[in-house]
Inverse folding.
């Protein structure tokens, strides 16, 4: 949705919110209103950036009263925090889903292929323009608003590390991964997969998925060079061993 679309929508008549007998919105109406506010705020932040987006503009575009927005979120930082929390949850969803899928996958699938599948899901989302735009906004506002940096760390990074750690614990228990500290291994893996993409986003450099995946595959090979468990080392040794010619 561009700015033209936003202005066109603001001209529409304000939608009445269903209210209970006491004059307050019903629970379902309040949930719908909040979802609409977050959707509109997300688009305006992406279109205009943090500094150029005002609560008044959000209220007008979402067709709700200004006091409602101020009462719900307090200030622009509170609204941006709510938007960011939802975006982080969207970023974590592919990682969690991919990790759960790989937990139930056949043990015949190599560790490398499992990690590639997880990495691909993460890259598909993080290389998107919206994710990269929010990454830049969060980085630029973290200096002025430390709470935003704390949110990004606790709701984003630490939860991603925890999800990956559980998956690595599973691989260690299978003997497929040979690391002593799965939390550190998870941090290294996430840096390997999305760290470079995140840094490029911070610099305003867009990333194409194909080159990013090629880099991710190479980085995972390097990661696994020191992290394969005994079983996978034996498999790799057998696979890479030179074939002997049959004696005559």
């Amino acid at each position: 949705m561009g700015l033209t679309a936003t202005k066109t929508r603001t001209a529409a008549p304000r939608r009445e919110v269903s209210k209970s007998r006491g004059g307050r919105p019903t629970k379902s109406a309040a949930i719908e209103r909040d979802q609409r506010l977050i959707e509109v705020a997300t688009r305006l932040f992406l279109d205009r950036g943090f500094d150029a987006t005002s609560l008044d503009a959000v209220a007008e575009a979402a067709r709700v009263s200004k006091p409602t927005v101020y009462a719900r979120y307090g200030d622009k930082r509170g609204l941006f925090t709510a938007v960011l929390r939802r975006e982080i949850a969207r970023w974590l969803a592919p990682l969690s889903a991919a990790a759960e899928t790989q937990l139930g996958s056949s043990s015949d699938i190599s560790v490398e292929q499992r990690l590639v599948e997880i990495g691909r899901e993460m890259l598909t989302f993080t290389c998107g323009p919206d994710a990269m735009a929010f990454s830049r906004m969060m980085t630029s506002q973290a200096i002025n608003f430390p709470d935003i940096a704390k949110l990004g760390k606790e709701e984003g990074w630490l939860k991603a590390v925890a999800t990956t750690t559980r998956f690595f614990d599973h691989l260690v228990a299978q003997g497929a991964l040979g690391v002593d500290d799965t939390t550190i291994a998870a941090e290294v893996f996430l840096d390997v997969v999305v760290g470079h993409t995140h840094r490029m986003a911070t610099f305003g450099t867009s990333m194409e998925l194909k080159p990013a995946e090629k880099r991710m595959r190479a980085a995972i090979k390097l990661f696994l060079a020191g992290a394969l468990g005994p079983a996978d080392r034996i498999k790799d040794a057998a696979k890479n061993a030179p074939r002997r010619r049959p004696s005559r």
